[in-house]
## 1
Amino acid sequence: MGKIKVIGPQEANGEITISGSKNSALPILAATLLTDERIILNNIPNLADVNTMIEILENAGKKVTWQDSTLIIDTVSDINSILPYGPVRRMRASFNVLGPLTIRNKYAKVALPGGCSIGVRPVNFHLEGLKKLGIESQIEHGFTHSKYIGAPDKTHISLPFPSVGATEHLITTAVLLENTETILTNCAQEPEIIDLCNFLISMGAKIEGHGTSNIKIHGVKQLHGTEYTIIPDRIEAGTYAILGAVLGKEITLKNIIEDHLFSLLDIFEKIGINYKMKKNTLTIKGISKLELSPVDVETATFPGFPTDLQPQLMVLLSLIPGRSSVTENVFKTRFNHVDELNRMGAKIFVESNTAIITGVSKLSGAPLEATDLRASAALLIAALIADGETIINNVDHIFRGYERLFEKLENVGLKIEYYE
Ligand code: EPZ
């Protein structure tokens, strides 16, 4: 695992173009297993997790070719539904290949997905929902062994929690259950769900209600090839918006969809951050923290404030005079970044799933340990504003979610050194 060295404080000034959404690309790549016909995907970010998913598709019989940020996906052999342990184990979204493979081949063997340090990552909602769709699974030696025994004409699945991955997995499976009707309630409503459904509809799937908490799917016999362009990454955008607020002189973000960032922009309003939204461009002016107001924030499923921006926002709140709080309602223990920020002089106290933040005038550089993707991004923002040298160890997590990170930071005048 590599490390990053940063000497702060630094100031950001310039323009960043946001890449395609990681959390759209991953479920859409899994869904390409639903057809043997050619699929062309545009605006795909070249990230570690995307390349892991490509490795999984190649194990399953696909040939995947990069052309800039376009992927050409063809089928080069009979579909293989017995997948090697490594790639699926390495991350979370890979588990969503289980349903499509089982429906198409009648059986599959897929490793249980990787968890990560933001919390226990069970898949019980996935397996319970798949069972109602006629997929029986059992877990042995870290693998999920599944077989398709036939789906009922009509299935109603009510999710105990609006799980993004479970919603995506069940949609991606139900679309190919010919002549059946599946109704999902208490679904996730994230933009990435809408993107996945629009992709599936472009392949001939019959889906209604995507983007609401009730989705209806009419299964079809087969799905055809398509060309599709995925949405920009709202979490990458939010991360750079917070970076701009923390240390910006003025940064401009391009490829923004305002609807996807409402909850962050609403918090920026409450804090007093100076920003301007014009068409698909967001400009942030960093101003003195003394003029900003503390806030109380709760993470929630979309359209609430996203858990994936919680660590990054905490860096900004730690520099605002007064008392702020962040309550984490999605991954209740997602606070690994707190100890590291306190090492830099932040004053953050965690009680149950709420962090109480007392603003300080500055942070100071320190040796830090990164633990997961979004915590790494938070520590990088903190290092860039802190006085003195910071070394962030274990930092390769950050490449799972931020395409061309060093290039984009250099474009706004930020200097960081990376060591293998
Ligand atoms: C997706 O993860 C995202 N990943 C995560 O982004 C994001 O944090 C999360 O949704 C919440 O928005 C991708 O889209 C690839 P969940 P997912 O199922 O689907 C519990 C990032 O940084 N749960 O919505 O795994 C679960 O433990 C990543 O890009 C069950 O209990 O999240 C959690 O508490 C991190 N049983 C809650 O639901 C299940 O079967 C929400 O999880 C499934 C989930």
## 2
Amino acid sequence: MSVRVRFAPSPTGPLHIGGVRTALFNYLFAKKHGGTFYLRIEDTDQTRFVPGAEAYIFEALEWLGIAPEETVGKNEKFGPYRQSERKAMYQQYADQLINSGWAYYAFDTAESLDAMRKEAEANGKTFIYNHSVREQLDNSLTVSREKVAERIANGEHYVIRFKTPVNEILELKDIIRGDIKFDTNLLDDKVLFKSDGMPTYHLANIVDDHLMETSHVIRGEEWLPSMPLHVLLYKAFGWNAPEFAHLPLILKPIGNGKLSKRDGDKMGFPVFPLEWKTEEGTSSGYRENGFFPEAVINFLALLGWNDGTEKEIFSLEELVEKFDLNRIHKAGAKFDPEKNKWFNHQYLQKQSDASLAESFKTILDKKGISTSLDLTKIVGMIKERAHFVNEFWDLADYFFEAPTSYDEKAAKNWKEETPGLMQQVISELNKIEDFKSVNIETLLKEWMTTNEIGMGKVMQPLRLSLVGALKGPHLFDIIEMIGKAETVKRIEKAIASL
Ligand code: GLU
């Protein structure tokens, strides 16, 4: 059987990073086995529909380089790929289950169910619509066939519920979790279909996974409790079930529980691939925060998986080659925002200086700074200190603008003899014809040695004069870059103001 896997998001908002990891693992598994990765939009719950969410999902996967091969508007071999457009088809499957005795009509109103729920609660119990009560409730198990037909014909609201078998221990197999047993007596009779003609998630999901020839269901752990129902549904239809793999949760950086949007807001890191704007506010995205898609892919791949070695940096191609569902951990994976930044730093170093210079140029343009300096060279000098391109300005502003203030702590090293020394530096610099870093370094060092001047006495104040603080790359490279005239001007200004 060929591998066909799917990502099946519900368009209820921006795609959480956990959803992106699910998509990624499906993608990797498909590519690894020469199979197909498709995407199905699960939008049967119209009350939770959010405009823009679907487009967001496609854009995010596209940006990350893991777009599906089949989906809405793309190779619709098993289409439509949007469940709302498959609506007409589900009824027959619900009917099939009714006819085979695997499902039944239930007319209980929301109010009566609510009353029973409250009554149970008052007695310290939980109300479950299942084998223990279904023979006493308002459904086709207790009402005659004729009466049921009549009530439906009269337009009474109903749902179709799954008739969960009694007294069975299901022995299920999950690729990640191994063998799992479920007692069917503990399951409720889930709603599969509603009289508005819409299937629920469970029915639509199983029917579509079957019709779209899904070989493996790889999804988040939160769906594990649905697995027994899903396996029973396959059995009820007489279909072969796909294999299942439930991915471990992504956990908060600190404390317990699932990573949430609030953790991101609190600690200042994104949990969404792209920015998402609503009337309530904006949720930040990896893309807008300056993450490289390759870095995002890399750190997500390592949330719950590794290749068995210490290796951390993987290209998408390497991930495809190494990926193995059997190497996914059962335990939840802690989300580490610092590590994410570290990955981005690594990928930033891999970019060519020329392409980084282009991104930097865009930032400078926005600031209204035009320059004739060699940006490629500047980027090469500062990038090892950066996690993001958007840090370049803070790391390199002094190349373009003379300091307007001086770091107070560093200024304490500006001693009485410093102005005199700086004057001498100026005269030394003026001697240099070929104003290159090595020449400047050789000359100034010679001058210091000959005159027995301590390095620190010159180098620190000089850096302070040019940069405004004791930061930045090799000082002589900075001097070469800004040029003789600008260097002299800055030293004179420092002498005047410090
Ligand atoms: N529509 C479900 C979701 O939003 C899909 C779950 C599954 O993969 O079966 O996650």
